[in-house]
Amino acid sequence: MITVLAGGVGAARFLSGLVQVRPQPEITAIVNTGDDVVMHGLRISPDLDTVMYTLAGAINPETGWGLVGETWQAMGALDRYADVRPLASAAGATWFRLGDKDLATHMYRTHRMAEGASLSEVTAEITGAWGLGLRLVPMTDDQVETRFTVDGEGELGFQEYFVARRHDVAVAAVRFAGAESARPAPGVLDALRSADTIVIAPSNPLISIGPILAVPGIRDELIARRDRVVAVSPIVAGAALKGPADRLMADLGFESSVVGVARIYADVASALVVDVADSGLVDAVQGVGMRCVVAETVMSTPAIAAALAETAITSAG
Amino acid sequence: MITVLAGGVGAARFLSGLVQVRPQPEITAIVNTGDDVVMHGLRISPDLDTVMYTLAGAINPETGWGLVGETWQAMGALDRYADVRPLASAAGATWFRLGDKDLATHMYRTHRMAEGASLSEVTAEITGAWGLGLRLVPMTDDQVETRFTVDGEGELGFQEYFVARRHDVAVAAVRFAGAESARPAPGVLDALRSADTIVIAPSNPLISIGPILAVPGIRDELIARRDRVVAVSPIVAGAALKGPADRLMADLGFESSVVGVARIYADVASALVVDVADSGLVDAVQGVGMRCVVAETVMSTPAIAAALAETAITSAG
What we know:
The structure is a homodimer.
Chain A: E1 2-6, H1 9-21, E2 27-31, E3 37-39, E4 42-44, H2 46-55, H3 73-82, H4 100-114, H5 119-129, E5 135-138, E6 145-150, E7 154-157, H6 158-164, E8 171-177, H7 188-194, E9 197-200, H8 205-214, H9 218-224, E10 229-232, E11 235-236, E12 239-240, H10 245-251, H11 258-265, E13 271-275, H12 282-287, E14 291-295, H13 302-313
Parallel strand pairs in A: 1-2, 1-9, 2-5, 9-10, 10-13, 13-14
Antiparallel strand pairs in A: 3-4, 6-7, 6-8, 11-12
């Protein structure tokens, strides 16, 4: 059994490699929900959907999120309302792009949760509809919101920071509102306890994996099983392949390098897989107290993703 | 000033005639919200939207509801989830067709109401976005739900009765849940008091106009101004042009004819406009205590709608 801690695009690609080398029923992904947001009354779980659409072979390959062959009629029609809304309102805002087909996922989720279903129940239904054989589990069924303190502006929600502001702001602090009282979703702790190997996917350590580790009980379980936990660095040659991990690490006082990643994960993982571009930093990573494994980590083809997954799961212990 | 009590398709056509013969700023439509429903988490106001889309020239002329040139990507995608939902759930149901562009209206409304805006505030914003010059006002900002008692089945909501069951069931009773504690929306009573003429549009008297009259204060205002109130019969030669008015009237003990319509409206309106096909019933209508005006009421062309509107507003007093 393999359990993967997952954010969005990077984790989705890693999992698409993993399912090539291991049977899906042996895999559980525990997915970040700190980015979840209600927009236009609809419950949106970006990381769950990115992982699901990717594994279903339905992801838009150009963006890395959303559905392939998507249409944008609803967003186009929403533009009509942008000019009439009160200034203080985000109603009618279209910076968070929701394709017409993608809307169906949020409509289903919203309907079921309004009936009282938990996010993990609905996630099982939705992934079943897409024919996934692996298990996707939200980190928690409780509300946890990743929030960013931006100098001179106060706090932004995740999507305001990430999409509306294109993560092009200096972040003074990150917090996971609600995490202190959140409980791991059903199956999360069991999946960590029963896994032969736990992989921390190449996701943003601070705002994709960070929220998962902030749910009480999860970090402790990883610490207890540290010898079976392998992380894959999302930082290659000092930069993030996608997203703001590099800038955010620097803003928050971490070195934007595999060594910085190692310092974040040293207490919960015993090994770090780094890219060949960072082979010169193997000693530095080991100096932080983690074994360091060098591999090709830029998953530009399915074969590379599969090889990386194989490397990761054989690097534990 | 002219105030119109309005349901859906019939009222929308009547109003599209009225705006040809009177300036839009002189017109207020008080619209039924008893059909309003939350589907997939989205707030849907079918009659408000039918009237709005019609007056904006954007209605689908084939259905009489929804937008012209609509696409159905979200509904198609929702089908995927229909098979995985628990049996007791309506999540993923697609019998209530929501086009992709139409979804934007519901998304905007839902977002604004989640922020605390009232339905009448949001309606003003939405109709402004569509460039309407007349005023559309929901009958109430409070929740009123038209509900149907069906023999052997218990109660159905409006859309279950009307769309899912295609109003092909025997109705034992209709009620307007919440009406007793609802208040007229801001502007409703003023629009009735200040109108030179009040027109009851050719909508279903029991389930389109009935809910409006059930909001405390509205019926009393009509009774007080009865000499200025004109109704247009939605029944022509004993049948409804569209929808279940004829069957429903019979089910609930009313004669399915202009005489039956006259009996429903006699206390709130002083005149009834009936179709030329019913000219033989003029005496019978007058026997119920209403003046009876004969006109062409089947609005198959814009010119006929305009002439009918002119007839209606000149028939009062």
